[in-house]
Amino acid sequence: MSSFDPRRRSDTPAAAITQALYRISQAIGHLMRLRGEARQLSPAQIQALLFLRFARPGARTVGGLAERLATTYATASGVADALERKALVTRQPLPEDRRTVALALTEAGQQEAAAVEDVLDEIEAAIASLPDADQEALLRGTQAVVRRLQEAGYVQVYEMCWGCHFFRPNAHPADPRGPHHCAYVDAPLPEPNTFLECPDFVPRGAIEPRVVRLAESRKQQRRRR
Ligand code: SF4
User: Fold this and answer.
1) How much distance in Å is there from the Cα of 63 to the middle of ligand 1?
2) pLDDT tens-place string over residues 156-191
3) What stretch of H or E contains 195?
4) What pTM value is reported for the model?
5) Which of 9, 24, 158, 179 has the fewest CB atoms within 10 Å, i.e. the most exposed one?
6) The Cα angle at residue 141 between residues 135 and 146, in degrees rounded to 5
7) Which candidate, 185, 216, 221, places its Cα nearest to that of 58?
8) 164 Cα–ligand 1 center, Å
9) Ligand 1 centre from 149 Cα, in Å?
10) What pLDDT is stored for residue 211 in this prediction?
11) Cα separation of 108 and 87, whole Å?
């Protein structure tokens, strides 16, 4: 019996919770579609705008977008093309590697991204209505599930430097390129970039060798693109 089998759902909390998460994912898809219809954007275009608004600069490429959307390079390139036609995105060579094309939001793209960034507020409001103890339990439980899915390679976690295994705060405070250091790309980090989302984030603390290996293998794949 699967977790879709209605008889099983009432048997085990794990099956019931899996169904609840599935319904939440459907609700997220629905909210994305509704917002997209209102603003003449597809759900993938909304995700791309939010990616370009919050991802660290070096990740804002077509390959980075493909990773974020969990899709192929060709599909991500098509999403970028559509946003470019709408004058929301531009393409330009990455300053540190001119063979790689970076994506950037235009002024209109920044405004559009700001207009859609509250798309999941309904979900957050539903969670915020729970008692504090339930929210804390939900946070612990969902983080553990996400960690396991990350280790299995099913999901990529984008977070900021401050909780990252590779982050070295104030490693070289006088460096004009940035006071902090990323041991993953072995490069200085300016303060503002440490508050952006990074696809190479690996949580500090309960470090799993498999998660680090996954991050390393992603880096190699990106170099081959
Ligand atoms: S790998 Fe970690 S420290 Fe480096 S930029 Fe990404 S989040 Fe920041």
Assistant:
1) 17
2) 889 999 999 999 999 999 999 999 999 998 999 999
3) none
4) 0.84
5) 24
6) 120
7) 185
8) 6
9) 20
10) 62
11) 7
Tokens of 8: 């099983």
Determine the number of helices (DSSP H) and then strands (DSSP E) in the chain. Answer: 9, 5
Confidence of residue 97 (pLDDT cuts 50, 70, 90): confident
Q: What is the Rg, in whole angstroms, of the alpha carbon atoms belonging to the chain?
A: 19
180: β partners: 189
What residues flank ligand 1, with Cβ below 6 Å?
56, 161, 164, 166-167, 182, 184, 198, 200-201
Q: Which atom of ligand 1 is nearest to the CA of 168?
A: 3
CA 198–ligand 1 middle distance (angstroms): 6
Structure tokens at 78: 């098509």
218 or 58, higher pLDDT: 58
- Which of 29-43, 46-60, 84-98 comes out lowest in average pLDDT? 84-98
Residues in the chain: 225
